[in-house]
Amino acid sequence: MVRRSRAREVVLQLLFQWDQNPTPVPRAALEEFARERLLGDEAMVAYALGLFDGVVAHQDRIDPLLSQTATNWRLSRMMPVDRNVLRLGTYELLFDPNGQPVEVVINEAIELSRRFGTEESPAFVNGILDKVAQLKSPRISTSGEVAVTEHAATSDAAKTAVIAQLPEPTVNNPHSANS
User: Fold this and answer.
1) Who contacts 91 (Cβ-Cβ below 8 Å, separation ≥6)?
2) How far is CA 49 from the centre of its chain?
3) Residue 145 dihedral angles phi and psi, to the nearest 5°
4) What is 77-144 written as a DSSP string?
């Protein structure tokens, strides 16, 4: 398994635990889990924890976006694996300062959903992340500002408006928005 793919798998496991357990896990335990699963590869541990921290920090913006994008699906009704694969993919597409190509993010998410989800998960994740990826032209910086790329067209004004309506990320209690 490719190193970053394995790191994303660990991130999914951390997100699943975070999503399902109302009691926060100590940071040291998260780091130890990642280190053990990634066989002490410190670069991949840092990568995995960075993705995890990014999803948690931006959950207040990611979840409403997923709710708007997943027509006829409430986030709380999604399978927990699908919900967390979508959170990870959305973070990587729109918020990750080290952004990966859209195709890589979506393929990695599909593989995670294929491995850990249901038979329908890959198609579901693909459809939702494809819609999220359409918002990628107005790139969101880590400060929450929207930076329009040279590929932006006039329809990007509508995309920017959707993103601008999302609440700012908070880090107080990441579980408060889960329900």
Assistant:
1) 51, 54, 55, 58, 62
2) 13
3) -80, 145
4) GS-HHHHHHHHHHHHHHHT-TT---HHHHHHHHHHHHHHHS-TTHHHHHHHHHHHHHTT-SEEEPTTS
pLDDT 10s digits, 117-158? 999 999 999 999 999 999 876 544 444 544 433 333 334 444
Range of the domain at 157: 3-164
Among 171, 163, 173, which residue's Cα sits nearest to residue 61?
163
Strand, helix or coil at 9?
helix
Could you tell me the mean pLDDT of each successive run of 10 residues in the chain, 179 residues long? 91 97 95 98 98 98 96 93 98 94 97 97 98 76 44 40 49 39
As for how many domains the chain has, the answer is 1
Local structure of 10: helix, strand or coil: helix
What is the phi-psi region of residue 40: left when phi exceeds 0, alpha when psi lies from -120 to 50, beta otherwise?
Answer: left
Residue 170 lies in a domain: no
